[in-house]
Amino acid sequence: MKSDEIFQELNNEYYKLYRSMPKIPISVIVTESIDKANCKLRPDLKNRIIIEVTENNYNYNGRMVLPYLVGDTISILLNSENMIKYTEDGSMTWVGTFAHELTHAIDYHLIALKDNLDIYDPLLELKDNRYLMFNLWSEYHARKFGYNFLNNIMCKNLNISEDEKIKHIKDNEWPFHINNYYKEYRATNKGIQQIYRTLQLIGSYSVGCDLYPTKFNEAQFKIICDSCPWVYKIFAFLRKHESIDEIYAEFSKMREIFKENWMDF
Ligand SMILES: [Zn+2]
User: Fold this and answer.
1) Number of neighbouring beta carbons within 10 Å of residue 141
2) How distant is the alpha carbon of residue 120 from its chain centre?
3) DSSP string, 124-159
4) Could you tell me the distance, in angstroms and rounded to a whole number, from the CA of residue 205 to the centre of ligand 1?
5) Cα separation, 138 vs 144, whole angstroms
6) How far away, in angstroms, is 161 Cα from ligand 1 center?
7) 135-156 pLDDT tens trace
8) Which residues touch 82 (CB under 8 Å, ≥6 apart)?
9) CA 140, CA 168: separation in Å to the nearest integer?
C-alpha cells in the first residue's frame, strides 16, 4: 500500500469513528524536519516558527499547519524518523498522531467559521485570551480523539475481552501516561507547558471514562489528583464541554478555573 492510500484509509476510519466531525481538505506530509516543512508551507511565519523552535526544542511527532486562507487545505506534518521508530516498536503511535493533528485541523477550521474569519492568523495570536483558551481546549480534544483512535485501530484485530482491556489500561497504559506526565511536567518551569501537559493527561483519562465509566470516572480522577484541585476542576469542566459547540461560549469559564492556580492567566 502506498503512503497516500494508507492516509486515505486512516482518514476514512477517522470519520467512521467520529461521525460528528465535518470533512475538511487536508494534505499529509511525512518529513525529516517538521520545522523546515512548516517554514516551507508558511514562509510568512518563519520568524515566529524559529522563536518557537528555540524556546521549545522538542522532538514533535507531528504538527498541524494552517494555510493563510480559511477554506484552503490544512497540512498535517508527521515526523518520518519517529514514524519508523513507532512502527518498529509496534506501538504505532504515529497513527494516533495523525488523528490528533486532524482533530486540531477540524477544530481550527470550525472556530474560524464560527468567528467569520477569512484568514487563520488571528487564531495564532495567543495573547488574545479567548484563542489561548481555544488552543488549550483543542489540545485536550485532540489528545482524546488521537489516543482513542489509536486504541480503536490497534484493538480491531485483537480478540481480547473487556476485562483484559481494562486491566491493560490500569496496569500498563495509565502508569505509562502518568509517569511521562510527571517527568515532562517537572522538566519545565513554564506554566503554559505544564498546562498543555495536564490537558493531554486529562484527554487520555477521558477516553477511559467514555469506554469504561464504572472503572474510570470523575470520582476516581478526583482521588488521583487529590493534591491539585484545579486539575480535577478543569477535568470536570472539560467532560461537560466536549465539542466546539459546547465550549464556544464558555472560554471565559475555562479561564477562571486556570486563574485559580495560575495567577497571570
Ligand atoms: Zn496537539
Assistant:
1) 24
2) 19
3) G-TTSHHHHHHHHHHHHHHHHHHHHHHHHHHHHT--
4) 16
5) 10
6) 31
7) 999 999 999 999 999 999 988 7
8) 59, 61, 93, 94
9) 22
Q: Is the pTM of this model over 0.90?
A: yes
Mark the residues whose beta carbon lies below 5 A from ion ligand 1: 139, 142
Question: Rounded to an integer, what distance in angstroms lies between the CA atom of residue 116 and that of residue 110?
Answer: 10
Cell triple for 244: 466546539
**3-class secondary structure, 182:** helix
C-alpha 53, offset from chain centre: 19
Distance of alpha carbon 44 from alpha carbon 41, whole angstroms: 9
Q: pLDDT tens digit string along 198-243? A: 999 999 999 999 999 999 999 999 998 888 889 999 999 999 999 9
Q: How close is the Cα of 142 to the center of ligand 1, in Å?
A: 6
Backbone torsions φ then ψ of 120, nearest 5 degrees: -80, -20
**Residue 206 near residue 139 (C-beta atoms within 8 A):** no
Give distance in angstroms: CA of 19 to centre of ligand 1. Answer: 21
193 alpha carbon – ligand 1 mean position (Å): 12
How far apart are alpha carbons 94 and 100 in whole angstroms?
9
Q: What is the pLDDT of residues 75-88, one digit of tens each?
A: 999 999 999 999 99
Cell of 213: 465509566
